[in-house]
Amino acid sequence: MAGVNTADLPLAGVRVLDAVPGALGAIARFLGELGAEVIRVEPSGGGADRAAGDKAAGIGLGFVAANLGKRVAAIDLPHDAARFMELARTADILLEARLPGLDLGAVRAANPALVIVSISDFGESGPWQGWRASDAVLHALTGGLSRSGLPGRPPLLPPGELTLQTAAPQIACLALAAFIGRLRTGKGDRLDVALLEAAMQALDPGYGLSGSAQSGVPLWKMPRGRSDERHRYPIFRCADGFVRLCVLAPRQWHGMFKWMGEPADFAGREWEKLTTRYRSVPLRDAFTRFLAPQTRAEIEAGAQAHGVPAAALLDIGEAIATPQMIARNAFAPVEIAPGVRLPFPNGAVEIDGARAGIRGSAPAPGGDATFTGARAAFDAAPAGASATGPLDGIKVLDMGVIVVGGETGRLLADLGAEVVKVENAAFPDGQRQSRDDAAVSLTFAAGHRNKRGLAIDLRSARGKALFLDLVRQADVLCSNFKPGTLAALGFDRETLERANPRLVMIDSSAFGPTGPWSGRLGYGPLVRASAGLARQWVYPGEPESFSDAITVYPDHVAARIGAGAALALLIRRMRTGRGGSASIAQAEVMLGHKGAEIAALASGPALTRGAAAENWLLPCAGDDEWCVATIRDDADRAALARVTGGADRATAARWAATRPPDEAMALLQAAGIAAGAMVRVADLPASPQYQALGTFREARHPLIDAPFVVEGRPTRSAHLPDPDQRPAPRIGEDSAAVVADWLGLDTAAIAALITDTIIEQAA
């Protein structure tokens, strides 16, 4: 099939047994794109997800998108328990979502080395265990819904299934981390994964890194109501549609000022400040007048010429047809039925410069698949994983900045790797900035925990040589600069590979390392504009009610894809002894979550619309209090009638209006209806289910007066330890110690490097 990477994919020889239906089939698809052999387990008549949602030629497009490249084993439990056990006995990873009739104890006894990932909506403990979730309910319970929408308006559910789609790579990362632990210790594991946690962590975590426009203010400190965030990444009407600007840094403002003809009204130095520009109505009006007569293409060209981050707002159809997506083979045709070929996202990761994409069609029902690929032989040295995590002993040079870069390194650090954040006082990470000029921002402190700080001059010959010496000792190098930045510094991929053939290199960029848009300045809001999401994140029937300025998507999920690729390449290194590279295009991550929708656009007369669940936003007693209820079928409507007195939205709304949202949620859940109260970010740690799961914990930083809340353990397992809580570093806090530990330099040599400002050591 076109787009298939024929190279040695990282997870070749790894066997995955997939018993997770629906959209979360994307977990195993991701592992399969990285090379794993994946067998889907489903009933003999085929899983219910085959016919769910929109269909072409009778085939569910969501099913196809989640199951490309898999094979099927038709198994009816408990009748076919022996057949299931045969597969589990030779598998490496089992993904299951409370599969009826499955005896996990027997599976564990048959294969003690197996990594079992058990997925449920709310986890296996706590007051909400056994409750039902939906994508919309998870938005409500993870804090995202409370911030989505415009001031004075009801909250707005985001488009698509973002919580489920972002949770999938998070779960895949956890599975790979546990598998590395197995390779190093010989011990299998069982993970209790709650979708509630996975969605909260991977979409818009309220207690981690936030967008640079937040200026270090964490989401839990934001106003209670939905504030008008549109000024942060403003959208302007132009001659043929809309464009978005992200003028954040002073140099970007200088480019904008020059592009506008250097208007005297905005010539002062005060306009270099982000907050000054945000608050200025006259400046916004000037932008409006300047952009209105130009076309989207003219604006994008002018912005690129002046170093101004800007992007046209495209719809999904326009997004997939851009020269960038075509050049990068981001979509590949898949035959879903005889004579019916439709485009599907072709993966979001390149391995060693080649796309790790679609590896086959979606499987037909009734298969009898067995694992046929050769088992991989792994060298697990250095032997043993300590209490610090499965990546104990792994050294990471972290050049990542802002959200996606910082988060990638943090995920590896939480798994026990020694992560060194590489910076320079002249070029600090933008996440450090704080509106109150604090020494360290709260979001930086939360998002860069467990790292060491190295400040090094990479523009000097001695600094470059020193960095290459560090590369020779490293296992992983992470970056998310604009493509070409590392090469311009003298660190192209070939140079790094020569310095250390065992090095794993992970990079992320807005549009990928190749193609006509590869050099574009890219932030998440611009990616959302170019990939069609900004046009969709609006109130129904109000196409200009743009409301996506509150999200950091896709940064956090792109970081998890990058971390997952790093883990996969480390697994391959255990097998081959060599390193490799992975590149993640954030625009392709986002469009990858639209697989069924994109295929539907191309389906023509073959398309039949499926019945969709209804998500009701029910106003509750109190000030701006809401409960989300997902009505899936007639059984839900019958249950609703028993609880509220009617099966219609109006009756449910009148019923909810007399109750606090927590009460409405509990009563609906007791009746078997997926429901969730709208929880504000500041209230998440007090939620009883998060408390029961141990999702959050308190942290301290020597430069922050009071303790603050951060994410704790990502899941519950037998062998994955809770992450450490070492404070995020100051710039250059550990420079001397790092070069001493990694390179064995003596005190005199280190002092000379500091004197000559090759490295900086924080006081």
Task: Tell me what the structure shows.
The chain is globular, with a radius of gyration of 25 Å. Among the domains are: 15-217, 3-Layer(aba) Sandwich (Rossmann fold); 247-308, no CATH class; 395-514 and 553-591 and 730-760, Crotonobetainyl-coa:carnitine coa-transferase, domain 1 (Rossmann fold, 3-Layer(aba) Sandwich), CATH 3.40.50.10540; 614-686, no CATH class. The chain is an alpha/beta fold. The strands form seven sheets. Strands 15-14-21-20-19-16-17-18-29 form a nine-stranded mixed β-sheet, with helices on both faces. The chain has a seven-stranded mixed β-sheet with strand order 5-2-1-6-7-8-28, with helices on both faces. Strands 4-3-22 form a three-stranded antiparallel β-sheet. It has 29 helices and 29 strands. The model has no long low-confidence stretch (mean pLDDT 94).
Overview in brief:
This protein has 763 residues and is an alpha/beta fold. It contains 29 helices and 29 strands. Strand 12 (331-337) and strand 13 form a beta hairpin.
Number of helices in the DSSP assignment: 29
Average pLDDT across residues? 94
Distance between the termini: 57 Å
Q: What is the CATH class of the domain at 15-217? A: Alpha Beta
CATH topology of the domain at 15-217: Rossmann fold
Number of strands: 29
CATH superfamily of the domain at 15-217: Crotonobetainyl-coa:carnitine coa-transferase, domain 1
Using the alpha-carbon principal axes, give the shape.
Answer: globular
As laid out across the biggest beta sheet, the strand order is 15-14-21-20-19-16-17-18-29
CATH architecture of the domain at 15-217: 3-Layer(aba) Sandwich
Main sheet, how many strands, which sense, barrel? 9 strands, mixed
List low-pLDDT spans: none
Quaternary structure classification: single chain
The level of helicity is 25-40%
Percent in strands: 15-25%
Query: Nearest-angstrom radius of gyration?
Result: 25 Å
- The structure class reads alpha/beta
